[in-house]
Design goal:
With 124 residues, the chain is an all-beta fold. The protein is globular and about 35 Å long.
Amino acid sequence: DVQLVESGGGSVQAGGSLRLSCAVPPYGYTRYCLGWFRQSPGKEREGVASLSVDGITTYADSVKGRFTISQDNAKNALTLQMDSLKPEDTVMYYCAADPVQCGGQLRPRTWFTYWGQGTQVTVS
């Protein structure tokens, strides 16, 4: 079973930055399609960014130019650098992984098998 653990959420003022981290299995970035999702109460979980094994990154239009997905090889972590945060970015964020490759596309939540527990981001 694949365990994912997010960290780095918190509160920040609009225009500020946060960096989320997700502990993944060793060399997970070479084996899994990895992604970040977010969900607000009563709404569908939506894809934010994904990272394929060949290093291709994809982003939702709402975060392009503000968020950056990357891998931290030394820490076996998937990260999401969030800059220029807006109040509408206030939601729970989840990381996800699946052995079926992304193919360089932003895949929907149904694509992913493994999920973290989520971390809250609040922008005021």
